[in-house]
Amino acid sequence: MLKRLNLKRLYAVKAKTLDNIQKAFCLTKADLQNIIRSFHAEMERGLSGKISRLRMIPTYVARPTGNERGKFIALDLGGTNFRILALKLRGNGRTLPPHVMKFALQKRQITGTGDDLFDFIAGCIKAFMKRQNIQLFEECELGFTFSFPVRQTALASGQLVCWTKGFSAKGVVGKDVVGLLRRALIKRALRNVKIIALTNDTVGTLVAGSYSDRRCDVGVIIGTGTNACYPEKASKIRKMPANPIGNREIIINIEWGNFNNLKKTRYDKLLDASSHNPREQILEKMVSGMYLGEITRLVLADLEKQGILFSTPCSIPGSRLAFRTEHMSAIESDEAPHFYATLRILRGLGVRYSLPDDRKLVSEVCRAVSKRAARISAAAITAVVLKMDAGLKKAHVIAIDGSVYEKHPTFKDDMKEAFQELTGEKASRIRMVLTKDGSGKGAAIIAAVAYASQEAK
Ligand code: BGC
Ligand 1 centroid to 158 CA: how many Å? Predict the structure, then answer.
């Protein structure tokens, strides 16, 4: 009898604790509307050159016409893997399938010195040229996607403002990253490679999307990191004294990962305090693949400490980043009542014994964390769309890429549900299109635009 009573109590405590966690991670419609309001205020401040959490970086790029042609090389660096590709543009919004080579960065390049990083990249470009049979006397134009906050000073130059996503290579912050790459290319005798455009992955994604669809006007990445861009009327970018590219629109790299006006749980605060960049990139820490697993791990470790999860002695791994966002996707796709996939994942992480009930709780925690991420992303996209079109009078195509968006089982649907809550029946005017590998393709297209304008001079 006593045992039954205790069990009953334990279930009640479990239910109450889960309820509290769900409440802490829940964002109501009013919360999302607040995010949009605050986003608009920060966007305005950023555009007028005032201090803002949103950097609103003018990129010296406008959307392409779709008629650009030629063969261009792109280097796409933004995470631990990077790619080099050759893309042939055929005009009429069409491209041939790109030739791609992938490379993995090691710790030495990510956290060593800038020379380690750029020398390694130049070596990989050399290998790519060899594979592509490009001779050293053949001039080739390269678009460089560098997916970190960069203060762009011209189409092909910009200084790194700060590293994100765990990168910390020394001697790069404050430097022109194109200059650093050029120097490394020269050391490898690759004088024939001309870096003619520098861009961000969101801008590449928007440009790749709009090359074939003119209605495309937002580029978004929800992967290891997160960010977005959109075309802004040149007259509204008040911090830019004159429009340097003479176009009526300039794509703005919002750098939304640094948005901060969000309700934080104590787990968010813990994660931030132990991160390599405390108080920075708060939205990114609630949304992107680099951090979602870790927030979940912090919650689970806390539940275990409170005696609510796992009744036998075992332990959610104490080490940072052991629980990954991919685990969440697998756990949230797992099937009740046994949750066997979750069982396997937990075993792999060293939790040898768990009850189906424990696994259900793990799944519900994952759900609370990922749903919040999807709703924040949807509110941020809505803010960007409404900034361009306050009455949501026309259709907007959002070119979107990134592992979290692509692979998480409920992320897209959670986002769509939030669009519906925020904009009612007009939600159908916000259409997200997965633009796979747009960041690299877009860099090649931007190189094509830059090349055409050089030729015209
Ligand atoms: C960077 C952005 C990038 C985003 C997605 C963020 O950490 O600051 O520049 O676009 O990650 O890769």
Answer: 15
